[in-house]
Write a structure and sequence with these properties.
Layout lengths: L9 H15 L1 H8 L8 E2 L11 H19 L7 E4 L4 H11 L4 H4 L7 H11 L4 H10 L5 E7 L3 H16 L3 E11 L4 E2 L2 H4 L3 E15 L2 E10 L10 E4 L4 E7 L5 E5 L3 H4 L4 H5 L6 E8 L16 H4 L5 E4 L12 E3 L5 H9 L31 H14 L3 E12 L8 E11 L5 H8 L3 E3 L1 H13 L4 E2 L1 E2 L9 E3 L5 E3 L3 H8 L8 H4 L4 E2 L6 E4 L3 E2 L1 H6 L1 H4 L19 E5 L6 H13 L6 E5 L2 E2 L16 H8 L1 H9 L9 E2 L2 H33 L7 H5 L4 H22 L3 H27 L6 H22 L4 H11 L28 H23 L10 E5 L3 H8 L2 H8 L4 E4 L6 E7 L1 H8 L3 H9 L3 H10 L1 E4 L2 E4 L3 E7 L6 E6 L2 E6 L4 H22 L8 E8 L14 H9 L1 H9 L2 E3 L9 E7 L2 E9 L1
Helix pairs in contact: 1-29, 4-6, 15-16, 22-23, 23-24, 24-27, 24-28, 26-27, 26-28, 26-30, 27-28, 28-29, 30-32, 36-38
Length: about 1100
């Protein structure tokens, strides 16, 4: 292996790896190597290329890349083809801006070549940011084939979408109807409910109370409340709740009579707090009370006469439905079926309108009144609100008005208010297959499962028929050809189109196929395509088949590998892509679309707000990558709550912490390995040859512990990855890295230095460390593909020619590690040793005893002698780790502490009931003999109830009175430190301080362990008296202490120590205080 630099430049290293991958076609090699193996199918939700990638894209790309790399390293063939969503509003919105189009239906025909010009503009812009996407995704480390992509505008993709629609048509799952849909007046089209829910704002709208005189009793009026005055010209009915009470009241001041819901009367005629306090009479009196059902059929005087002649026989009467609530308004709802989903549903049920005719909807695509509403023709409806209110006021139909502030949906592309209006649409009859969808949703795995069984299950349980047509322009045309009599032919393939028309177009957009006509085979009448195009969600929902061009470009169904093995997108796709894929897969094959799904949460800005380019509340992803590297960003994202579908506030500092707390320690452990391999090779005079068997057969307890921990990690990773619980894997791996760097390496440093005195011992330590580092590096390859490649390229050089992975030029071509046989009992023992070390450290920290300060002695107390015997095997490590000069053991805690027993309230609360309080008092009075008997028996009986030892909490309470002795206890262990500062302790302390100081100098000089150095130390200046604990430190004692350091320093530093001024060039120089003296330390590199 080559020497490594003092620190690692992560971004530079990643760029070098990218060059290596590209020059050696490593991604292609990984595909070729597994081409004949079982396939792992993967679906990539297609993004739009009309903007650059954000953190959400990088998150799901990382999750996808992790799994695809992991499966590839496990021998699966994992083709990964990028996809692009190229149709729909995002691209049309850009084209509208560039072409100056305000309303497509009006402005597009005015273009030079009409729709052809428009579509060509869309095509020219649709891949605007594709290069940026390719660069960012590649720089993230994701392997994906951009060259053999799919795009929803490719003819073979669009033809497959036609086939999907044709199958639905043949199954009777397509029909034409009318639906109230969110409508963008800026874009001139309806939106899906998913799109409509993406953008809300607080708005102020006029709120009006309108009177509706009763025919035959015009002095009595219904009162209805609305915040959409512009819908009042289209009023056709009033809706009440049939099961709730209504009242006819007389307003005291005006003597006018009105009908409203009883529970809402006080909100229509409210009293002030002062009036209520003085118990003033209400401003109305109740004449009579009736149920809403008694009002059904009553007629009222229409507000306007625009539609009177057309609807007088069926409309302008009271109807009923339970959707009317007591939450707001008057309990009487004004119904305009052309502008409200519930309005339309109830009006259809009461035959106010007919399902075979369009409901009253007198507005154009731009949201302006049509000529039917003569007074306001051509006026934008929101602008007409004030004029309509004024007219109603003049005609004495306005009872009162106010301003209502509420949340209102805006167009997600134009930020203009959405209107809800009836639209003739083509529908997929989702409600017919809803039960099958629910059943199919139970057949696959969602992570986290709560999204599957909660949010998504609820969504599909309430699924309604899906409006799949759009009155837009750039998209896949709905392949319905129709003649003037309404006869329909669905074209589900180019072959069928060619058969009927004699034409086979190479472009399936509407500017081409709309020119294709053919005679009706039955009547000879001309058939033309209908004007609608597909909702782009229908196209993306067809992705599992259309991305392969099935059944034309890819005729064999088995080649689809359907259902898909794995996909992953964010939580907002619950009502989007996940849903549309399930609808179509159920309709076509009655199968779920995928087997495994990871749902990620939403990434927010650090302040908890939505990330916004305009607000500049987040750092551009590429700026972060260029500064801290992709591996750091990847680890940060996949080790966060977002992997549990929870929201996550992104922090740049969090990425930096990954570098500081994870990648840097990891690199240091690797650097330590390389340096000690070089030290070993210099010491023994020949190359170090890694040997897995030697590593696994090491007799050293700590070696077996780290090997066992590694093997258990491999088992855990395999289990969790197969269950797609990625959120559990990364924390476990990082926990192992902590064990490796903060426990194993630190506690074994001395073994690596014993090349001259015990080369076999040093080699064993190296064999284990090399094997562990290489195995862990391979395990982490899917997660941190760049850094692991950097390390592999160097470690591979150390492998012997006969090593099975010697020829693997990339870590990503190496098989994923398999577990090996380990001593699980020994792993548990070492874990107890580490717990003991942590307990001793806690005693130090609580008593402010620096780890550099040696402790005279420590005592470990535990009742179980077997535990003590196990820990004794590693007591040298404990002394080294906690800086203890002597370690003692005892299995009788009574000398140091008394046992305190309390109930485990979680376990015993319900079991003991009222006995728990006297039982707690009984436990407090138990003697040490009672405790010993309890531990031997494993249980006790209190007032007829048997209580197990496992249902009790045993703690040790410290009772030693010596002020120098400090202690702490937990989990049956008692740890005591004797902190008396003796001259011997002081000497040991100074040795450690001096050693640590010189090691820091060595690091500052960027010297390698293999560098041969001399250390020169001289005293400078006069002695300054120091107060000691046993005696005042005088020059004679200080001199003795100083002289005694030489041998200790040479042993610790593996360098020659000279107490004299050096000759020759000084490599590094510094000074420190040493019990009364100032020492000047100079390092000379030989």
């Amino acid at each position: 292996m080559e020497s490594v630099p003092f620190d690692h430049k992560f971004t530079k290293g990643e760029e070098e790896v990218l060059d290596f991958w590209n020059q050696n076609n490593v991604f292609e090699l990984s595909l070729e190597r597994n081409a004949q193996n079982p396939r792992f199918s993967f679906a990539d939700g297609p993004p739009f290329a009309t903007g650059t990638p954000h953190h959400g894209h990088l998150l799901v790309s990382t999750v996808k890349d992790v799994y695809c790399r992991y499966k590839s390293m496990n021998g699966f063939y994992v083709p990964r083809n990028w996809g692009w969503d190229t149709h729909g509003l995002p691209i049309e919105h850009l084209a509208d801006k560039e072409l100056g189009i305000e309303c497509g239906a009006v402005d597009i025909p005015k273009l030079e070549e009409g729709i052809k010009t428009y579509n060509e503009k869309c095509k020219s812009m649709v891949m605007r940011y594709s290069k940026e996407w390719r660069y960012v995704i590649s720089r993230l480390g994701r392997w994906v084939d951009f060259d053999n992509d799919y795009r929803t505008l490719y003819p073979w993709y669009m033809e497959s979408v036609w086939w999907v629609f044709g199958q639905l048509w043949k199954k009777g799952l397509v029909y034409k109807g009318t639906k109230v849909m969110p409508w963008s007046t800026a874009l001139g089209t309806c939106l899906s409910n998913f799109e409509a829910n993406q953008n809300y704002a607080d708005v102020e709208d006029p709120a009006v109370h309108i009177t509706f005189p009763i025919v035959g009793d015009e002095e009595c009026c219904f009162i209805a409340w609305t915040t959409t005055p512009w819908t009042l010209p289209s009023n056709l009915a009033l809706i009440v709740n049939p099961g709730l009470e209504y009242v006819e009241v007389t307003h005291v001041e005006t003597e006018r009579r009105f009908i409203v819901m009883k529970e809402l009367a006080d909100s229509v005629w409210p009293q002030t707090a002062k009036q209520r306090k003085k118990k003033k009479p209400k401003p109305y009196v109740i004449n009579r009370t009736m149920l809403g059902s008694e009002l059904v059929g009553m007629q009222y005087v229409p507000l306007f006469d625009y539609f009177y002649e057309r609807k007088k026989d069926t409309a302008f009467r009271v109807i009923a439905d339970t959707y009317v609530t007591t939450e707001s308004g008057t309990g009487v709802v004004h119904a305009a079926p052309g502008f409200g989903e519930d309005d339309l549903r109830v009006c259809l049920a009461f035959d106010i309108v007919d399902k075979h005719e369009d409901p009253v909807c007198p507005i154009d695509p731009a949201g302006c009144f049509t000529p039917e509403v003569t007074n306001y023709e051509g006026m934008y409806v929101k602008d007409a609100d004030a004029l309509i209110i004024e007219e109603l006021k003049d005609r004495d139909r306005l009872y009162k008005q106010s301003v209502h502030k509420h949340r209102y949906p805006l167009c997600w592309r134009s930020d203009t208010p959405l209107l809800y209006r009836s639209v003739p649409s083509w529908f997929v009859a989702v409600e017919k297959i809803k039960d099958d969808m629910i059943a199919n949703n139970r057949k696959n795995r969602w992570v986290p499962e709560v999204i599957q069984t909660g949010r998504f299950h609820n969504w599909i349980s309430n699924a309604r028929d899906w409006a799949i047509s759009r009155n837009r322009f750039f998209g896949t045309p709905i392949p319905i050809w129709q003649d003037e009599d309404g006869d329909i032919i669905v074209i589900d393939s180019l072959d069928k189109l060619e058969e009927l028309s004699g034409q086979r177009p190479t472009d399936l957009h509407n500017d081409v196929v709309d020119e294709i006509t053919f005679p009706n085979p039955k009547t000879g009448k001309e058939m033309r395509r209908i004007p609608e195009i597909f909702d782009c969600w229908f196209e993306s929902g067809s992705m599992p088949y259309a991305s392969h061009g099935y059944p034309f470009k890819t005729p064999d169904f088995d080649d689809l590998h359907f259902p898909i093995d794995f996909c992953s997108e964010s939580l907002d796709q619950t009502r989007g892509w996940f849903y549309t894929m399930l609808v179509l897969s159920t309709a076509l094959f009655n199968e779920p679309p995928f087997k495994n799904l990871i749902v990620t949460g939403l990434i927010l800005a650090e302040d908890g707000q939505k990330m916004s380019k305009s607000k500049k509340n987040y750092t551009d992803p590429m700026e972060l990558i260029n500064k801290m590297g992709s591996d750091a960003l990847r680890l940060y994202l996949i080790n966060s709550p977002v992997l549990k579908a929870e929201p996550f506030c992104f922090s740049d500092e969090g990425v930096l912490n990954v570098v500081i707390k994870i990648l840097n320690p990891w690199f240091n452990s690797y650097k330590f390995l390389v340096q000690n391999v070089h030290r070993y090779e210099v010491g023994v005079g020949h190359a170090f040859v890694p040997d897995q068997e030697k590593a696994l057969q090491s007799p050293n307890a700590l070696d077996q512990w780290i090997l066992g921990t590694l093997s258990n990690l491999i088992k855990f990773t395999a289990q969790e990855m197969e269950n797609y619980r990625l959120y559990t894997v990364v924390p476990k791996m990082l926990g192992f890295l902590n064990s490796l760097t903060n426990w194993y390496i630190r506690m074994n440093r001395s073994r690596f230095k014993e090349v001259e005195t015990d080369p076999e011992k040093a080699e064993t330590a190296l064999q284990v460390l090399f094997f562990v580092e290489m195995t862990f590096n391979t395990m982490m390859a899917p997660f941190t593909p760049f850094f692991t490649e950097n390390l592999w390229l160097n470690m591979r050089k150390q492998l012997p020619e006969n090593h099975p992975n010697k020829e693997d030029i990339s870590v990503h071509l190496v098989p994923y590690p398999a577990p090996f046989v380990v001593d699980d009992e020994l792993v548990s023992v070492v874990d107890e040793v580490f717990f003991t070390i942590q307990l001793l450290r806690e005693v130090r920290e609580c008593n402010k005893l620096s780890i550099r300060r040696p402790i005279k002695s420590a005592t470990i107390v535990h009742r179980d002698q077997n535990v003590i015997n196990a820990i004794k095997q590693l007591d040298e490590y404990i002394k080294l780790e906690v800086n203890i000069m002597e370690l003692k053991y005892d299995n009788d805690p009574s000398t140091y502490a008394r046992t305190v027993i309390t109930p485990d309230f979680k376990q015993l609360g319900r079991k003991m009931g009222k006995k728990l309080k006297p039982f707690s008092a009984h436990l407090k009075n138990m003697t040490e003999a009672d405790v010993a008997a309890l531990e031997e028996a494993g249980q006790l009986v209190f007032d007829g109830t048997t209580v197990l030892l496992s249902e009790l909490v045993l703690e040790l309470e410290f009772i030693v009175e010596d002020p120098n002795v400090k202690g702490s206890s937990r989990k049956g262990f008692l740890a005591l430190l004797d902190s008396e500062l003796t001259n011997e302790v002081l000497m040991n302390w100074q040795t450690r301080n001096l050693t640590s100081f010189i090691q820091k100098m060595r690091a500052a000089a960027q010297l390698q362990f293999s560098d041969v150095i001399d250390i020169h130390i001289v005293k400078q200046g006069e002695f300054v008296p120091v107060k000691g604990l046993e005696n005042d430190i005088v020059p004679e004692f200080a001199d003795t202490l100083f002289e005694a350091q030489k041998n200790n320093l040479e042993k610790a530093l593996r360098a020659r120590v000279v107490y004299a001024e050096p000759e020759g060039e000084i490599t590094y120089e510094d000074e420190m205080n040493f019990v009364g003296y100032t020492l000047v330390v100079k390092i000379i590199k030989q």
